[in-house]
């Protein structure tokens, strides 16, 4: 059996795609995600769905404050947060150089 049918059977049998294997390595790793309104979130990567929405756990929200404030950034703990892929502008992962290179190739696989 070759082609799409074989791929479907392999995925049903419990084997996983390269992208899934790479994402699993990132679980509980530190991640920084920027969103369109200028805020960013730092937390532990918890999961990502097929649409690219990401859930961070133990997340902290950072946003810039008014210039009159003594601190240029304000932060608050938000705990578990879902960040829709449509809102994301950047995503940085704290991982090894080899893992970073693997992440760069995610768009070209599967």
From TrEMBL:
It comes from Salvia divinorum. Residues 24-83 form the Sm domain. This is Sm domain-containing protein. It comes from the Eukaryota. Coiled coil: none annotated.
